[in-house]
Specification:
- Residues 155-206 form the HTH bat-type domain.
- The protein has helices at 15-22, 51-59, 89-96, 119-131, 144-150, 157-168, 180-187, 191-208, and strands at 3-10, 27-36, 39-47, 64-73, 76-83, 99-106, 109-116, 137-143.
- By secondary structure, the protein is α+β, with helices and mostly antiparallel strands.
- It has two domains: 3-143, no CATH class; 151-213, Arc Repressor Mutant, subunit A.
- Strands 6-7-1-8 form a four-stranded antiparallel beta sheet. The protein has a four-stranded antiparallel beta sheet with strand order 2-3-5-4, covered by helices on one side.
- Strand 2 and strand 3 form a beta hairpin.
- It is globular, with a radius of gyration of 18 Å.
């Protein structure tokens, strides 16, 4: 039976985290990693004034085969990175045939939320991590039935927690009782990422309730 699982690795275990450590003023939005026959191709936005240095640092990573800037905007760029098959969390996910649902950086770790074919595939990821000295932590694991029973509105756990925290702090009040900056400090992500997470969550909430009633 398919399961939903959240795994965590320290920032330094993930090449993107090491590149960000060299450019601390940069921010990154990474939604998903798409498996292909040649490995994985993560597409992500990087924000800040030092895109060139970030890309250069990423190119020096042994786990990265190629980096390309696909588009530029005033304060960032859309980047594509082709990964090698060097042992790491990305290769572990690819070998398990899991689908990556969400990636978030929080409290000094990268959190990967996956849909895995079964629990044995998750055990395979853990075994791969142990064999390759990857500091991997299993945060939680649920069956799809458990997830659907606990969340009827199409929200990820991150979206639900962010919206609930914003509501409790008065973000939706007039005048507002908190700001995106204050919420971003609570979740250790950028204000832009908080706004994006809430928009997606509220969109899913409306689609599952108001729209579904029409």
């Amino acid at each position: 039976m398919s399961v939903i699982v959240e795994l965590s690795v320290p920032v330094e275990e993930f090449p993107l985290g090491r590149a960000l450590a060299a450019t601390p003023d940069m921010e990154i939005e990474l939604d998903r990693i798409v498996p292909t026959g040649d490995g994985v191709l993560p597409f992500f936005w990087v924000w800040g004034d030092d895109v060139a240095t970030f890309v250069s640092e990423l190119e020096d990573e042994s786990g990265i085969d190629e980096v390309a800037v696909l588009d530029r905007v005033s304060d960032g760029a859309l980047v594509r990175a082709t990964w090698t098959d060097e042992p790491g969390i990305v290769e572990a996910i690819v070998e398990s045939e899991a689908t990556l649902l969400e990636v978030a950086r929080r409290d000094g770790v990268w959190k990967f939320q996956l849909r895995s074919p079964d629990r044995e595939a998750v055990v395979g990821i853990q075994r791969y991590a142990a064999d390759n000295d990857i500091d991997l932590r299993l945060d939680w694991i649920h069956t799809l039935t458990e997830v659907e029973a606990g969340d009827q509105y199409g929200l990820t756990d991150e979206q639900r927690r962010t919206i609930v925290a914003a509501f409790a702090a008065g973000y939706f009040d007039e005048p507002r009782g908190t700001t995106l900056e204050e919420l971003s400090a609570e979740f250790d992500i950028s204000p832009r990422a908080v706004s994006k997470r809430m928009r997606r969550g509220l969109r899913n909430l409306v689609a599952a309730t108001l729209v579904g009633e029409e």
